[in-house]
Structure formats: structure tokens, C-alpha cells
Design a protein that fits this description.
Length: 222
């Protein structure tokens, strides 16, 4: 594992009005590291993940991702930077219902100038890696929860992200399917050196991570 730091959050605070949801949190992620943020619902972990990934701006503090201060970037710069550097996996899959599995995977490539065949080839390659090639032409409505999440993981990987952010990726799945998704994440980290920052309220899921960060009431407690 390359130990260079890929992501650093310093003094991160997020307020909504007078309510501070995250309070002066600092943390870092090394390249190729798998870190789990754990804590009860409402403790601020998803908000922290959103700030670290550039989806939300902190009220205070700074985020450095791959050497770039993303807190001072414009919205356009941030959108481009996210597209080229980070992947997202959400609890609710966030697939486009009118697009096939492979089109959902290829979606982040559409703003990039690239031959249509190349887009399809890259999407199919990732679906094969996820054991989903026979489902490539299916719409999300024809896929199981586990299949939808594997499509979402493939989509998150299509631009070779430096960091993969996963927010409760097994939250909508039964335990066997959730275990299968965790196996995929573990493989991505162990075999391909993808840096992963995952949010979960289930400590048991975090057992494969290199490091566990516990949150309570908007603060890191350990």
C-alpha cells in the first residue's frame, strides 16, 4: 500500500443555522487505505463524507484531495474535479430508471469526448468484473437490490477514481447480499489499491477496514 496521504480534512465544521452537525473534525486517508466511519444515525458521518468528497461545502475548515484545496474551488471546478477523481456509492443506488445497466455505468463518461464504442467497452468490462455481463441490457427495474448496487459500484469506478466514497452501501440490502458487496469493496481495496472511505452504522461491516473512525454527536471520538 502506498502510504502517501490522498485526502485530508482539517477543522471541518458544518452548521445549518445554529445547529452544528459536524464539529471541528480532522482526519486523513492514505492512498490505497480502507477507512470506515462508524456511528449511530444522525451523528454527522454522512455530512462529513459529503464535505470530504466535495458534495457539500464546510462552514469552516479545509479539504485537500490529491493535493488540491477543494474548499476554495468554484462549483464548475468542483464538478470537473469530482468527475475525474472520486467515485460515489449511495445507499439508494441512484440509478437512472430509463437507462440500461451498461448505460448507467457509462453515464460519467458522456461529458468526455470519447467514441461511443469505447464508452460501451469500458462499461462492459466493469460489468464483467461485477459478474453482471448477462444483465447489461436490463433496466434497473429488472435488477435485484444487490445487482443494482453492483451496477452503482461499476459506475463509481468508470473514471478510475483516486478515492471511492461509500455511504451505507449495504443499507438497503439483506445481510447475504450486503456481505457480497463488502467482499467486492474489500477486493477493490486489496487487489487494486483503491482508497475507500465508507460510512456505516454497523461496526461488524467495518471489520475488513484498515482503520475505524468512530463518531458521536458530530465529533470523532476515536
Amino acid at each position: 500500500m502506498n502510504n502517501g496521504t490522498i485526502l485530508t480534512g482539517t477543522g471541518l465544521t458544518k452548521k445549518y443555522g445554529d445547529l452544528a452537525v459536524v464539529k471541528e473534525v480532522s482526519l486523513s486517508l492514505a492512498a490505497g487505505e480502507f477507512v470506515c466511519l462508524v456511528g449511530k444515525s444522525g451523528c454527522g458521518k454522512t455530512t462529513l463524507l459529503s464535505m470530504l468528497s466535495g458534495l457539500e461545502r464546510p462552514t469552516q475548515g479545509k479539504v485537500m484531495l490529491d493535493g488540491k484545496d477543494i474548499t476554495s474551488a468554484t462549483e464548475d471546478e468542483l464538478a470537473l474535479f469530482r468527475r475525474d477523481n472520486v467515485g460515489f456509492i449511495f445507499q439508494s443506488f441512484n440509478l437512472i430508471p430509463t437507462l440500461s445497466a451498461w448505460e448507467n455505468v457509462a453515464l460519467p463518461l458522456f461529458p468526455i469526448k470519447m467514441p461511443a464504442e469505447e464508452r460501451e467497452r469500458r462499461a462492459m468490462e466493469l460489468l464483467e468484473k461485477m459478474d453482471l455481463l448477462p444483465r447489461a441490457e436490463h433496466l434497473p427495474s429488472a435488477l435485484s437490490g444487490g445487482e443494482k448496487q453492483r451496477v452503482a459500484i461499476a459506475r463509481a469506478l468508470i473514471n478510475h477514481p483516486k478515492v471511492l466514497f461509500a455511504d451505507e452501501p449495504t443499507g438497503n440490502l439483506d445481510s447475504a447480499t450486503g456481505d457480497a458487496i463488502m467482499d467486492i469493496l474489500d477486493r477493490l481495496h486489496s487487489n487494486e489499491g483503491v482508497a475507500i472511505l465508507m460510512v456505516t452504522h454497523e461496526v461488524e461491516l467495518a471489520k475488513t477496514a484498515n482503520r475505524l473512525i468512530r463518531m458521536l454527536d458530530g465529533k470523532v471520538i476515536s
